[in-house]
């Protein structure tokens, strides 16, 4: 999974770390990374984002640093979840073949909720189910599906951002955990 925002300092690193934590809680072994469409490579995570994760019991490695979104990151990701519509556009510009596996995070959670997840065993299966669900739900306006950037805000803005991201990730990964349990019991 690849999470994308603008500077790779707040939203996408929050999502990266929250996805790893949620994946582990659900008994899944998923890789999560992040990048920014306009990131300056090598910058540390925003201090309030790091503090938010720490309060949730999630450690940020001292070696973690921001990275600029590139074709390689896009090509190796099974699923790309972005914070804003402009980020999805940038992914499509860099790698047009990635459109079917690139979603706004909040929209993806809604699609997964509406999807038939009976045969979901992997991230590509989850993308297929989400794409199939597009015709069953009303379109989401871009501005309502964007995750608000907490940069420049206080601690409460970062907490709210993390809560929004965590809820969307938990909703999105739950079908994989169900499929994983079914496979284990077969």
Automatic annotation (TrEMBL):
EC number: 3.1.3.48
The keyword Hydrolase appears for this protein: yes
Keyword list, A-Z: Hydrolase, Protein phosphatase
Domain Phosphotyrosine protein phosphatase I stretches: 2-175
EC class (word): hydrolase
Alphabetized InterPro entries for the sequence: LMW_PTPase, Ptyr_pPase, Ptyr_pPase_sf, Tyr_phospatase_low_mol_wt
Family: Belongs to the low molecular weight phosphotyrosine protein phosphatase family.
The protein's name: protein-tyrosine-phosphatase
Species the sequence originates in: Jatrophihabitans cynanchi
UniProt lineage: Bacteria, Bacillati, Actinomycetota, Actinomycetes, Jatrophihabitantales
